[in-house]
Amino acid sequence: MSIKHLNQRQLADRWDVSEASLERWRTAGIGPVYLKLQGRVLYRVEDIEAYEAASRHRSTSERVAPGGAA
Q1: Which of 4, 10, 58, 70 satisfies CB 3.0 to 4.6 Å to 45 for a cystine?
Q2: Residue 51 near residue 32 (C-beta atoms within 8 A)
Q3: Per DSSP, which regions of the chain are E strands?
Q4: How does pLDDT run across 6-54, given as a tens digit for each residue?
Q5: How far apart are the first and last CA of the chain?
Q6: By three-state DSSP, how is residue 58 classified?
Q7: Residue 36 phi/psi, 5° resolution?
Q8: Which pLDDT score, from 0 to 100, does residue 32 have?
């Protein structure tokens, strides 16, 4: 089993945000969990997908249950 990772630039491109935003989010403790290996920041794809799933909303007041339909 191989675990896939994205670096900061790749995640910024995926979400269409700046790398600086990801850096601020890490400092604030928000966003997906990450690895820091030898000074490099990496995100596991499974952690990114879990964060995306947990961030889904049906409306401004209603989250979508994990695994729930959109």
Answers
A1: 4
A2: yes
A3: 5-7, 35-37, 40-44, 57-59, 62-63
A4: 999 999 999 999 999 999 999 999 999 999 999 999 999 999 999 999 9
A5: 30
A6: strand
A7: -125, 105
A8: 95
For the chain, the domains span 5-63
The residues near 31 (Cβ < 8 Å, ≥ 6 apart) are 22, 25, 51
Burial of 61 (0-12, 13-18, 19+ CB in 10 A): exposed
Q: Please report where in the chains the tokens 């604030």 appear, as a residue.
A: 28
Q: Could you give the angle at the alpha carbon of 57 between the alpha carbons of 24 and 5, nearest 5°?
A: 50
Helix-strand-coil split of the chain, %, nearest 5 = 40, 25, 35
